[in-house]
């Protein structure tokens, strides 16, 4: 040994991104306890990111100052981009992780399927319809945009399918919770996996 001290920073990352439309900072820890500190300026979006953090047993702080005087589009989409980047950074080399995660999650009458692969190849299949334009100040059409941005910046194949549901708040919350559980599974380390889980040797 050369006497240097190596600090294991764990599976954490922090990213800040500022454009003319949004100013976003996200701190993310895969191996957390579900502690969230979220402020996007959109109440229902905060509620969703809180649920995601809690049910994935991540720790996350999110600070967003977006151009909400325009609408919620840039704020939600750009948060998806930065969240995907920060999760990708926190996952790191993917050695030892399970790679795939799938869950079917109920929330009262809503039943949501989420299945994902941290393959490095972005692809979103989103199969759901909403019956209201908004939940609070959150535009329901932005759910798909959020997960699209996230799947591309993270390099993830993501399937989200609504199996049943009528209440839009329940359907969307079910999606964020299902995504959290599936991502938690995919990022979990398995002792039997000693390298990267791919016949190609890389992801
Ligand atoms: Mn709720």
Question: Describe it for me?
Answer:
It is a single chain. By secondary structure, the protein is α+β, with helices and mostly antiparallel strands. The protein has one domain: Imidazole glycerol phosphate dehydratase, domain 1 (Ribosomal Protein S5, domain 2). The protein is built from four helices and ten strands; from the N terminus they run βββαβαβββββαβα. The strands form three sheets. The protein has a four-stranded mixed beta sheet with strand order 1-2-4-3, covered by helices on one side. α1 runs parallel beside α4 and α2 runs parallel beside α3. The longest helix is centred in the last third of the chain and has 20 residues. It is globular. Manganese (II) ion binds next to α4.
In short:
This protein has 203 residues and is an alpha+beta fold. It has helices at residues 43-56, 73-91, 142-154, 168-187, and strands spanning 12-18, 22-29, 36-39, 59-66, 100-107, 110-117, 123-127, 134-135, 138-139, 157-164. The protein is built from four helices and ten strands.
Compute the average pLDDT.
95
How many domains would you count in the coordinates?
1
Distance between the termini: 31 Å
Major sheet details = 4 strands, mixed
- Main-sheet strand order equals 1-2-4-3
Task: Indicate the radius of gyration in whole angstroms.
Answer: 17 Å
Strand content: 25-35%
Structural class: alpha+beta
Percent of residues in helices: 25-40%
Bound molecules: manganese (II) ion
CATH architecture: 2-Layer Sandwich
Provide the CATH top-level class: Alpha Beta
Number of strands: 10
Low-confidence stretches: none
- The string of secondary-structure elements, in order, is EEEHEHEEEEEHEH
What is the fold-level CATH name, i.e. the topology? Ribosomal Protein S5, domain 2
CATH superfamily: Imidazole glycerol phosphate dehydratase, domain 1
Number of helices: 4
